[in-house]
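Deliverable D5.2: sample structural annotation.
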Amino acid sequence: MNPARTAFRALLPVLERGVSALDRSASAFLQPRRARGKLLLQPYVGWGTPGRVEVSGRVLLPRTMRPPQTGDPRLRNVRNALRRLFSREVGGIGVTGTLDGVPARAVSDSDGYFTLVFTLPEPLGAGWHEAALSLDGREGTTTARVQVVSQARFGIISDLDDTVIQSDVTSVPRMLLTVLTGNARTRSPFPGVSALYRALTHSEHERNPIFYVSSSPWNFFDLLLSFLSYRHIPLGPLFLRNWGVDLLAGHGGYKHEVIERLLTRFPDLPFVLIGDSGEKDPEIYAEVVRRHPQRILGVYIRDVTEAHRDTGVMTLRDEVRHTGIDLVLAADSLNAAGHAMSLGLITPDGYRGVLESVTRSA
């Protein structure tokens, strides 16, 4: 392992303790003041089974940002990105939710996060539902969308950065320029990705659920959600990361944890894994296949790197093939769609939709 990386990992516990101490000191002074003002309740996309659903979110001080437009100046996008990154969270706030008449309650932590857990006496039907959320002692409610998974042919677990949305994560300067100066309407998806994901999620008789796992911080949740909606990419729960020391510690363990959680929550559901070659998706997904060969139908890796990286991915592809699973290094969405059609994961009509989308973008 790289000596610098080894030293950084050894330093992480010290940094985490220092950050925690600073958080406690700041919270003791700031939180009571913030709690007295106007608050923003930001729910994330809920998910679960017919009998158990989780809805997470965050309590923040409001920030002033108008809806994004394609013609917004870059400077405005930079200011909005910084407002998101330097959010002012509020802890110790009670949050109450109701889903299908069933209540749940939680209290926001020092970073403003909360998770409501609903245990349903009467099972919910598969598909989308809405939960009503409110802050204790405050007027008004906020609606959270909830994806309930029951009968489905398979699920999809997808990365976002450089898999769905062009982010240039292999180059830090380009990535920062892209992330900071763009907005939900100017950020670009890869050609054909919307048509491919619609083909994967829409089977003949049911909707296959999709879950997005990204190393982006939760601070960008609203931007990513707006991006998916604007680009007509199927909605699904987003699993992002807390902004801070844990964001610098690498995302391999984090992604493993989320995927294992989904596999455990939906024990009868096989999955398709989609990522890119820019970071560690091939290694992470290959390990998931080794642990759960009967649960994975296929792995699609978007090729966004140079030839030397492709060699390593091809080695992983050969290892994964021993389990009977294909790991496809896909040059574009059409390449992935062709393989998915050969497995029966999408229909010929779905493939034609991807072909038309990629052709229009050429």
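Annotation notes: The first helix runs from residue 3 to 35. The chain has two domains: 43-148, 155-361.
The annotation will be released with the project's public dataset once the embargo ends.
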